[in-house]
Amino acid sequence: MSDVLEKIWRIIQNSTSIKGPEKEGLLEDLSRLRKEQNAYDFKLKRILKDKSIAVNILEATIEDLEKKNLEVEQANQKLSAQQEELQAQKQIIEENAKILKQNLEKLELSYRELEQFSYIASHDLKSPLRTIASFAQLLERRYQAELDKEGQEFIQFIVSGVNQMSDVIQGLLQYAQIGNKAELTECLDLNEILNVIKLHLQVDIEKHQVKFVTDQLPRICGNKVGIIQLFQNLIDNAIKFRGAATPLIKISCRHLDDTQHWEFCLTDNGVGMSEEFQEKVFLPFQRLIGKKTPGLGIGLAICHKVVKLHQGRIRFESEPGVGTSFIFTLSSILPEES
Fold it and tell me: What single DSSP character describes residue 39?
């Protein structure tokens, strides 16, 4: 059949009596027929081949069944030996688990020591930075007349760099402080916490006419400083990365079935962001929107740390230009200090 179509194709192709759209239409129809014929031939060959394969498989299956009977008998003989081996391996696993627990305790201790070191180092760095900034500004005031434009720019660079470093150190201090589980844990009314945050952000809320739609929030047992920073950073980001419309922030919550966790969802109608940054956005000093927007990129890292401290998880769903929803869970009971 394919040979016939090929001959007809050549006849029409070489024909001088058939021209224009008619010739093109015939060639197009023949081309479609050739494809259908090729597909049919392929399916026929596949069917014949599959039939042969099925017969071979059936024969091989019969042979395999006979072999399986022998293998089952051998497997039964090995089973007892394997059970003894598994018992020995279980004992090894239990011993390794004890070692792992000890190593995790050492790692936790090292982590806390590192946090404490970060806090102390950051705190001690602030004083020399203030000294550098003060002397740079003093130098500018006293010798401004003797400095050319380039010299004045150099001093401004020094002051700007010092201020930026000071902001980074302040961010590190805030991040390190969240890891201190020894802070007071208390029963918190999240509705009152939200009112406190609105007072903290009152200037920006009034300036941008921010609207809130909020569920009745629960009472939980938690770290007050951390919880305030969690909700305040998310609300502050919603205002900071607002869109053209009047900012609208929705806060909803639901109690999960395990009776110990609450799930919260904070949604805005801002600029949004790509969900490819699902992991990166919660790392310290990650600024994904742009350097022109104020901030250090430490806010969401603090949120992640607070949620983790309260045995929860945090993620976001977002559509650029539409808005972002941060979904996180919080346990109402903090783990005991080890």
Answer: H
Phi/psi for 297 (5° steps) reads 80, 25
CATH of region 185-331, choose from 3.90.1750.20, 3.30.565.10, 3.40.30.10, 2.70.150.10: 3.30.565.10
For every residue of 139-167, DSSP letters joined together read: HHHHSTTTS-HHHHHHHHHHHHHHHHHHH
**Residue 39 and residue 171: Cα distance in Å, rounded?**
66
For residue range 105-137, list pLDDT tens digits in order.
776 666 566 566 666 656 666 677 777 778 777
Q: For the chain, what is the total number of helices (H) and then of strands (E)?
A: 7, 7
Residues in contact with 100: Cβ distance below 8 Å, sequence separation at least 6, in sequence order: none
Instruction: List the chain domain ranges.
Output: 112-178, 185-331
Gap between the Cα atoms of 65 and 71, Å rounded? 10
Question: Using CA atoms, how far apart are residues 249 and 232, in angstroms rounded to an integer?
Answer: 12
Q: Which two tokens stand for residue 69?
A: 């009977």
Pairwise CA distance, residues 285 & 175, whole Å = 11
pLDDT of 176 > 70? The answer is: no
Q: What is the DSSP letter of 242?
A: -
How far is the C-alpha of 299 from the C-alpha of 287, rounded, in Å? 10
pTM over 0.90: no
